[in-house]
Amino acid sequence: MFRHSFQHKFVTVYSSIGSKPLAIWDVRTKNGHVRRLTDEDLNSLVLEVMGVNVATTYITAPCAPCPSLSIKLPFLVMLLKNLKKYFSFEVQILDDRKSLRRLRFSNYQSETRVDCFSITMPLSLVPNWNQVQLNLADFTRRAYGTNYVEAVRLQLHANVRVKTIYFSDRLYTQDDTPADLRLVRPIPRLIKMRVPAGMATGRLGKVPDEPVESVRPTTPEAEEAPATSSEPVEDPTTPPETEETPAMLPDEEVQEEPVEATE
């Protein structure tokens, strides 16, 4: 499939971004499903492969009738999410002896087994998302003493979520990898809080362990208006009226009325 393509640094065989992510893949499902959904951790579209039986639900590339991927880059990188269920995948390669070798990885195997044409190895995944990096040339040389030529087929079984699968000529750092091939998690939003001046200088008073009840000052009462009287107010410009009393002459004596005596 990629034999006549220019294989420089990266060759992507699956990306969850796009209108047809499974364009070169065949899908096999039995008592399971293969669907694209939005992952809550990455907040991005991913492919979910789920099934009751690991062997009967999988996706494989390339799709028929193409016989081989023909990818010569030796490093396989997959961005996978650990769903805490049984999961496996396998890579079929061609070495310089023109022999097909099958490398099978799973999280339910406990030991490595090497046969004439297959290798079974345990796979350890951390919780949540993982970046799996495999050196196919090193595995081929260690197991069979031959040289890696190309990757022929890739098969991904249930149960897993996958974001990106690609081949590369070497392992790249996060900064050197293209943005669409990175495992990027959303950065939590930072909330800027205003720090009191006393806290920055260390002069802030000690905070009591228990809340202190403060007494609220009483509300001042409104001043009473002066009471109004119904008596007329005297005009200061008018002199007060005085009753005239008859003047008594000095020679006149006041005659007292006789008082009757009672026995």
Protein described:
There is one protein chain. The chain has 263 residues and is mainly beta. Helices cover 5% and strands 33% of the residues. It contains 2 helices and 13 strands; from the N terminus they run E-E-E-E-E-E-E-E-E-E-E-H-E-E-H. The strands form 2 sheets. Strands 2-5-12-7-8-10-9 form a 7-stranded mixed β-sheet. Strands 1, 3, 4, 6, 11 and 13 form a 6-stranded antiparallel β-sheet that branches. A hairpin with a 3-residue loop joins strand 9 and strand 10 (118-122). The longest helix is centred in the middle third of the chain and has 9 residues, at 136-144. It is globular, with a radius of gyration of 50 Å.
Task: Give a quick rundown of the structure.
The chain has 263 residues and is mainly β.
Shape annotation: globular
Order of helices and strands: EEEEEEEEEEEHEEH
**Beta-strand level of the residues, as a percent range?**
25-35%
Our Rg estimate from Cα atoms comes to 50 Å
Main sheet record = 7 strands, mixed
Provide the residue-averaged pLDDT. 81
